[in-house]
Amino acid sequence: MSTEFASVLPEPAQTDGRRRRADVNRQRIVDAMMALVREGETWPSAEAVASRAGVGLRTVFRLFSDMDGLYREMHAVMIERLTPIFHEPLGEGDWRFRLGALIGRRARLFEEMLPIKSAADAHRYQSPYLQVEHAQLVTVLRQILVFVVPETVRADTMLVDALDLALSFESWRRLRYDQNLDPAGAEAVMRRLADALVAGY
């Protein structure tokens, strides 16, 4: 290597050290954001995030160009953690059994994502990324529901719409936050709604 350039290039160890520190700080910032959201802060300020993470405000904005970038990172972490639940088998049995298993799976999924998704939704209309992620979640949840129910139910598009609403994240959030039900109570209401809707099938 030319000595002309060697003198101005950073040492590999120094570069690696800075990268590791940046990765550590990035994770601390995301963890701080998620902790604040779980504690009820739907829109934590950059100052609050920096304070909780134990880093400077400039570090937050150096690693995340704006708060939207931080929400994107937090949302990506949530999806990574929840993906295994999406892939859990519903077990063997008829479609009613599998529908019941699906409700149980959604109850666990929705409860885990409740504070983070609610905070992201408050920010969603200012974030094209979060709008796309929300639309994809709605689509996937409906596709799974349609796959579980039989053709006689799928043929009744109004019934599918009603089930899609009754078993949605938005219904879970209302039951938990607005109607003040605990997770077991919210799940019981979802089951009651589903049973009533498919009673004639």
TrEMBL record:
SUPFAM superfamilies attached to this UniProt entry: Homeodomain-like
Signal peptide per UniProt: none
Key words, A-Z: DNA-binding, Transcription, Transcription regulation
Region feature (Disordered): 1-22
Superkingdom of this protein's organism: Bacteria
Record field: transmembrane: none
Protein name: AcrR family transcriptional regulator
